[in-house]
């Protein structure tokens, strides 16, 4: 339960500091994890990013203040961490559907987002299919890029990396070099630092292979680990996020393991990840 408790404590920290400039690094430090792992946990369990939550809560409180006080709109904008009234008005209209001045005049309705409270789900009705695997260190080869965690840039740009890898032949070449125990292409998140003010994550498209490093591909040795290997059935874009959510909201709270903090893998076994009976796996290092 510690993971859920820590997440709630961190949400409480965000709420206490809504009127201050906050970064993912500062927030993640409260949870004693890296910015990437905190963002992953938060997004999986709440269906929104850290930035989305902060924005929605600030705009909810800003709307309430416009209705209940005489504070100038420009001062409300600055109070809730907007650099200009124009940026505040644009974001305000996107959430509430009307301008700040309209809300002040009683025109339109506030689209309010309440403070988050995390609840653990111990359903047990739908069994999760997984196995625990112990492996010595093994090598992967592939191509890597570094993505910013700010403004959810990583979630938008990683799919583009896969599209490019499909078009330029990278995926086909890696599939041909796959000669390890894991049969399938790998999406690998590598978080090299536990505490960092650099809000970035390294992402690999790779395959388990004994091939040497080349001009085309780099190699990475994954440490000896105990892995939780979770089955994913169905089209990847919907099925994989669903299993991630079940892992964090149901499996971890009811099992004695913690995330080991080393790289985690998404394994795409089927070539066609969009078909209804597509099969994939999520590999999580455990301790």
In words, what does this structure look like?
This protein has two domains: 2-104, Arc Repressor Mutant, subunit A (Orthogonal Bundle); 130-286, Alpha-Beta Barrel (Multidrug-efflux Transporter 1 Regulator Bmrr, Chain A), CATH 3.20.80.10. It contains ten helices and eight strands. It has helices spanning 2-16, 24-31, 35-46, 50-68, 73-79, 85-96, 100-104, 153-167, 170-177, 236-251; strands spanning 130-135, 138-148, 185-190, 200-208, 218-222, 225-233, 264-268, 279-286. Strands 1-6-8-7-3-4-2-5 form an eight-stranded antiparallel beta sheet. α2 crosses α3 and α5 crosses α6.
At CATH's second level, what is the architecture of the largest domain? Alpha-Beta Barrel
What is the rounded distance between the termini? 15 Å
CATH topology (fold) name of the largest domain = Multidrug-efflux Transporter 1 Regulator Bmrr, Chain A
Radius of gyration: 22 Å
Q: What class would the helix/strand composition place it in?
A: alpha+beta
Overall mean confidence score, pLDDT: 89
Report the β-strand fraction as a percent range. Answer: 15-25%
Largest sheet, described in full? 8 strands, antiparallel
Helical stretch tally: 10
Could you spell the SSE succession in H and E letters?
HHHHHHHEEHHEEEEHEE
Q: Within the largest sheet, what's the order of strands? A: 1-6-8-7-3-4-2-5
Helix content: 40-55%
Secondary structure: number of strands: 8
CATH class of the largest domain: Alpha Beta
- Count up the domains: 2
Categorize the overall geometry. Answer: elongated
Low-confidence stretches: none
CATH homologous superfamily heading of the largest domain: Regulatory factor, effector binding domain
Domain HTH araC/xylS-type: 8-106
InterPro entries: AraC_E-bd, Cass2, Homeodomain-like_sf, HTH_AraC, HTH_AraC-typ_CS, MarA-like, Reg_factor_effector_dom_sf
Protein name: AraC family transcriptional regulator
Keywords: DNA-binding, Transcription, Transcription regulation
